[in-house]
Amino acid sequence: MVRTGNQVAEIIKNSYNKNYEGAVTKDILSLAVTQFTQRFDHDYGGFGNEPKFPTPHNLMFLLNYAYHNNDEKTLYMVETTLEHMYRGGIYDHIGYGFSRYSTDARWLVPHFEKMLYDNALLSMVYLETYQYTKKPFYRIIAEQILHYINRDMTDPEGGFYSSQDADIEGVEGKYYLFKPDEITKLLKNDDAGFFNNYFDITWEGNFEGSSIPNRIKATELHPENERVTKLCERVYSYRSNRNKLFTDDKILTSWNSLMITAYATAAKILNKQEYLDAATKAVEFINRNLTDEYGRLYIRYRDEDAAHQGLIDDYAFFTMALLALYEASFDIDYLKQAVSMTDKMIELFWDKNNGGFYLYAEDAEQLIHRPKEVYDGAIPSGNSVAGYVLCKIAHITGKPIYQEYADKQLKFIAGQAIEYPSIHSFTLLAMSQALYPPKEIVCVAKDKEDIEDLKYYLTNHYEPNTIALVKTEENADELQYIAEYTKDYHMINDKTTYYVCQNYSCAAPCNKLADVKMATIL
């Protein structure tokens, strides 16, 4: 038995220690789009048969692809899915936020559990779709999700809770279900009839004799309706007092990092200070409660106790959050910490022989083998996010060492994704940074007003690969340490000056933001 066990362990080790290096090509992206197209539900959006999961990073990749390839069919898949997910009962029309998945094709009957990571990623894709299409519908849903997180899922110290239960008293969805007479007693008069009709609350019901509020039958969608909003507030208050919903209040570093990225994205796209404050407070929470004296991360925090050494997901996701927060604030402290966290990620998790990042650190308890997670399931894998942040760090710093790691990581994850790329959607987002070279904007700022102008530009342009740095008199030395090339960027005419580069070519420096908007780098 011992001999057989050792043989099995050796087989497992060998199967995971192969070199899966692959070519990073646009053909992989095109194949993924083909696979998504084949599985796309033209009636209700989403991909494949029920149960249907939101998997927002699929939509994030497709939106990115639509932008870079001017592909209307791909954009159609994104918009159709986002609209029908909102219409269905998977979206909580009364209190906002999305449930985990739908048991049917129409997104009507969910598994009622709400997960932090789903709502973080979904708010991101609704925000990005708003930025790309300029349609207010997507902005409204994103803000409703963020309102739900702030109200129900945020710890007073700034961290974010993990989930809310599906069951009450052992009954699935009891918290969310209504009968018409409940609404009639609560709202009375015309408001009750209007509300029941608006959200399809009927005597027949649509789930075990009761009704899940939904907008599937609606001919037009008006989520920003003052009358509906006020009535929903009353119904939400009634619902909250009718049954108490259990919240899992443990705070996970990786999931919190996704939520920080979402709030930072909202701050950048919507230019709202409250979202920047939420992201900042959550980063402070992680630095204070989920980081040890050596700057290493823990996995979880609850009841003043942090535990378990961080995994690759924690480091990669937190680095992505720090980069997003820098893009929203241009506070160089976040950029410095992102670079430091990248260094720790490489030191602790990098496979020096075959590339890729192991799941747990080199000094953690050694199991039969050190696995590498590459599949982008309900959340992106640590390896795909690591590839994404390495590409960003390489472009920001201009340092060959980071570019070397980025190239190796992209080849590693490309080798994993080549057979069925549509299940590696965040990997494809990482690859797109190499396949579609980013625009790089360095703003040498004279005053804060000019930084606000740059923020306004980034708010109004969906340019997913664009990298922006701000150099000021105060941060020049620190920025030069991170990105040495910025030492040669100076103000011209004693005015704020913009340097715009793409694909190793640069436009002439200019003093007007309008020139950045029009710059075309070949």
Descriptive notes:
The chain has helices at 2-16, 26-39, 56-69, 72-87, 116-133, 136-152, 180-187, 189-198, 226-242, 253-270, 273-289, 312-329, 332-349, 382-397, 400-417, 425-435, 448-459, 476-482, 513-518, and strands spanning 101-102, 110-111, 114-115, 163-164, 167-168, 171-172, 247-248, 251-252, 298-302, 305-309, 439-444, 467-471, 497-502, 505-506. Strand 9 (298-302) and strand 10 (305-309) form a beta hairpin. Helices cover 52% and strands 9% of the residues. By secondary structure, it is of the alpha+beta class. It is built from 19 helices and 14 strands. The mean pLDDT is 93. It has a 4-stranded mixed sheet with strand order 12-11-13-14, covered by helices on one side. Strands 3-4-7 form a 3-stranded antiparallel sheet. It has a 3-stranded antiparallel sheet with strand order 8-9-10. It is globular and about 70 Å long. The longest helix has 18 residues, at 116-133.
Question: Can you tag this structure with a few keywords?
Answer:
single chain, 522 residues, alpha+beta, four-stranded mixed beta sheet, three-stranded antiparallel beta sheet, 14 strands, 52% helix
Helical fraction equals 40-55%
Strand content: 5-15%
Taking all residues together, what is the mean pLDDT? 93
Number of contiguous helices? 19
Low-confidence stretches: none
Strand order of the largest sheet: 12-11-13-14
What form results from the Cα inertia axes?
globular
Q: Would you count the extended β strands for me?
A: 14
The computed structural class is: alpha+beta
- How many angstroms separate the termini? 64 Å
Cα-based radius of gyration, to the nearest Å: 24 Å
How does the major sheet shape up? Answer: 4 strands, mixed
